[in-house]
Design goal:
With 614 residues, the protein is an alpha/beta fold. Helices cover 40% and strands 9% of the residues. The chain has 21 helices and 16 strands. The strands form five sheets. It has a seven-stranded mixed β-sheet. Strands 8-6-9 form a three-stranded antiparallel β-sheet. The protein has a two-stranded antiparallel ribbon with strand order 7-14. Helix 6 (109-123) packs across helix 9 (183-204), helix 8 packs antiparallel against helix 9 (183-204) and helix 18 (461-473) runs parallel beside helix 21. The termini are far apart.
């Protein structure tokens, strides 16, 4: 048994150095070269002794540093029992040897080993250079994302491969190459390695200048936001436009937002030449406001700041928001009213400053039984976390691995509802994020993602921003109602399955032009059968295949990170208005969907979340 154990150790990566040393010694010896030992041959005496010492030291190391080793293998949101549970999920699952054999891993063993070593090097990298350069917070943030991605890749590789064609494939409408599954692993590993190597070079050169000619080394250091921002009482509102045909609606929205007491400033990101505004009456009015120091609005001209026409410009650090809270609106609305955005949305953000807070949330529907079970588990963990802390406490919520290449996992872009529970992303209008995230969104390590946004036909900046923030925070977005009534009138709490506010399948939110669905039912087939063209956003029916293209983008972006967040909780979480609805995203709904102000728990003394920022 001891010989067998020693042979296993000898054949492992722990004795690779010993084997290479023996090979070199053999080749350099004056004696004739010995034949290569067979797998059944015994080790030489010195090699046996050395491997026994290695085995003993390895056991001692694992015993003393087990918690640290587990921390690198599985991040805090995946305790050991959850890992075991994850691997046992799935229809027709049978226990497998999770060693990296050729049958389990499609790539070459050496390539796999190189990737593992690259990730391990990044996670175990000496952080003294990061400390010296001020990058420690940034490196820690990226390591958390990297660790989660590597864990989920290990989970995917432990699952049985699908046999035969998948039940449904990712729609391939465009000719844009999909992002590599778990591509974030290479991107972040390389960046962490650059921080280590380049900063050491700078230190060795006396700290003068840049280590290389790469402009990426000049990029500002990013810092994650705090979990709460109770001292913040105002917000910066950001609009973006590029065409004069929307200026009438845009100017009306700016006037409305500027009149609100919590608005500290309004930034208009203009993605076209200044001359276009100069030739338009409403455009000239915007330019006049921009030069008026007493006006809350200011312009940011993207082209004059070296940027191209890009949807992500509204998230660029160069816009320099004054407030920590950054609130977004599309140039054509909807511009949700002050009660929803200031009295409810901003108050929720103050208590959850490290996540995306959204009035227009979207659900990404999972299809496999395994993923559904994991999403349900993640939702319950999210609810427990919030009820325990009164807000999203500073802890990770389990993410669901997406194993597209191995098991055929895909997600569907659910454009039929704006759910309170189970939302995995948010549309820009009515979303609030911390300004610190702007630095991460434009970070050089994520250039591959930004390039995909530029090239894809739908330019999915909203999906990308939501994914980046949820991965960095380790939490799903938070949702709040986009329509909040004053007082207590009109509330129906008599136990009906749907309160009056949630029965309409179609609701015109702004000037009769922005149509949305407010149906809590999660019945995909019902809408596909004949209701799609009547009940969704204009882009979904004005541009052919818009919905499938958005679904294509969602699978590409989520697959790049390798996991999907558990989904948001609604405004009613932990209250009597939280109703279990298995067919709805997240398994719950808030009834009424659009409450009166006095029902919002985090602005009511004694309510869930109130004491976080009393």
């Amino acid at each position: 048994q001891l010989d067998h154990a020693l042979h296993l150790i000898y054949s492992s990566t722990h004795c690779q150095a010993m084997r290479r040393a023996e090979s070199v010694a053999s080749s350099s010896s004056s004696r004739p070269a010995a034949a290569a030992p067979s797998s059944s041959s015994r080790l030489s005496g010195p090699a046996r002794a050395i491997c026994m010492v290695i085995a003993f030291l390895l056991c001692i190391t694992l015993w003393m540093l087990g918690s640290l080793t587990m921390g690198h293998s599985y991040p805090p949101d995946y305790p050991t029992d959850i890992i075991d549970w994850l691997r046992l999920l799935g229809k027709n699952y049978k226990q497998k040897d999770t060693s990296r054999d050729g049958d389990d891993i499609e790539s070459d063993d050496d390539e796999v080993q190189d990737e593992i070593e690259m990730v391990d090097d990044a996670l175990d990298a000496d952080e003294s250079a990061a400390v010296a350069s001020g990058h420690l917070d940034e490196v820690h943030a990226f390591k958390a994302v990297l660790s989660r991605a590597e864990t989920n890749r290990m989970i995917c590789n432990s699952l049985p491969k699908r046999s035969g064609p998948p039940d449904k494939e990712v729609p391939r409408i465009t000719n844009v190459t999909m992002l590599a599954e778990f591509g974030i692993i290479n991107a972040l590993s390389e960046w962490i390695g650059k921080v280590k190597e380049e900063r050491h070079e700078v230190s060795g050169a006396g700290g003068a200048g840049n280590a290389t000619n790469d402009d990426n080394t000049k990029y500002p250091v990013c810092h994650l936001p705090p979990p709460t921002s109770c001292e913040t009482t105002t917000y910066t509102a950001v609009f973006m436009s590029h065409a004069t045909d929307r200026l009438k609606k845009l100017v009306g929205g700016i006037k409305d937002i500027c009149s609100r007491s919590a608005t500290e400033e309004v930034i208009v990101v203009w993605n076209s030449p200044r001359s276009l505004l100069e030739s338009d009456k409403l455009g000239r009015e915007l330019l006049e406001w921009d030069t008026d120091p007493s006006h809350k609005m200011r312009m940011f001209f993207s082209l004059e700041n070296g940027l191209e026409n890009n949807l992500l410009n509204r998230y660029h650090p160069l816009i320099s928001p004054k407030s920590e809270a950054v609130m977004y609106f599309d140039d054509d609305g909807p511009f949700f009213d002050e009660r929803a955005m200031s009295h409810v949305g901003l108050e929720l953000w103050r208590r959850n400053a490290d996540v995306q807070n959204a009035a227009f949330p979207r659900n990404l529907r999972v299809l496999s039984d395994r993923m559904k079970k994991l999403q349900k588990h993640g939702m319950e963990a999210n609810i427990r976390s919030i009820l325990a802390a009164g807000a999203n406490e500073d802890t990770d919520i389990p993410f669901t691995p997406t194993c597209r290449d191995r098991t055929g996992d895909i997600i569907e872009y659910n454009y039929f509802v704006f759910p309170q529970f189970g939302a995995n992303m948010a549309l820009p209008s009515g979303s609030i994020i911390h300004r610190n995230y702007l630095c991460f969104i434009w970070h050089p390590a994520l250039e591959e993602l930004r390039r995909y946004i530029r090239e894809h036909h739908t330019h999915p900046d909203d999906q990308t921003v939501s994914a980046i923030i949820s991965q960095l925070s380790g939490k799903p977005p938070r949702a709040f109602p986009r329509n909040v009534k004053d007082g207590g009138a009109g509330v129906n709490l008599r136990g009906s399955e749907k309160a009056p506010n949630s029965t309409a399948k179609r609701r015109k939110l702004f000037s009769g032009e922005f149509d949305v669905i407010d149906d809590a039912a999660d019945d995909h087939d019902y809408y596909v059968a004949g209701h799609v063209n009547q009940h969704h956003r204009r882009l979904l029916w004005q541009q052919k295949n818009w919905g499938p293209m958005r679904e294509e983008a969602a699978n590409s972006i989520i697959g790049y990170f390798g996991s999907l967040n558990a989904g948001s909780v609604g405004w009613c979480v932990g209250t009597e208005y939280q109703k279990k609805r298995p067919r709805s995203p997240g398994g719950y709904t808030c009834e009424p969907e659009f409450p009166t102000l006095d029902l919002i728990p985090w602005i009511k003394p004694g309510g869930i979340g109130y004491d976080t920022c009393p």
